[in-house]
Write the structure tokens for this entry.
Amino acid sequence: MIRIAVIREVAGDLQGAERLYQQAAAAGNPSAVARLAEMKVAAGEPEGAEKLARQAAEAGNPSAAARLADLKEAVGDQEGAENLARLAADAGDTSALARLAEMRELAGNPEGAVRLAQQAGQRGSTAALLRLADMREAAGVQEGAEELARLAADAGDTHAMARVAIMREMAGDRRQADQLARIAADAGNPSALARLAELREGLTAD
């Protein structure tokens, strides 16, 4: 039913598509509810869209809530965006929080960006923290980048541990670099030890 509804929607038969989505939604399919929410967005009905997005997320489909979070952020409704992103994350899509974190960082709100990235970390995804670390490192904010990588490492991300180890090595703190690299290796990620060896071999050769 949903596949036929999609075909009708693409063909421009919005009423027919909506009727089929409604039938599928009544049968308990959260994907159909999410599609109806998307149609409400396209039709310029944000309140109806949000209601449906919440229903879909509560039923286990976070896609519409994540999409609405992006839209609310784009129009400056940060509170609404965060609420929907958290709803999407609770339904299994932590990337919604990660995207908002990146948007906040680009908009010049680093504190808000970190808060959202930490929320993603609390839900089991440290990717947002490391992405912010990348962005700050690229901008030359080394201290801020290391702080974010440490937050990810503290959450148990061995790639982040390895990254902080290299940062400490580059800053001349060999003791902590070794310590972090060994912790990461013991947790199953020996990359930092190998990288430290390469760096130190290079220094010896020079």
Summary: The CA atoms of residues 18 and 36 lie 7 Å apart. The radius of gyration is 22 Å. The chain has a mean pLDDT of 90. The first helix runs from residue 2 to 10.
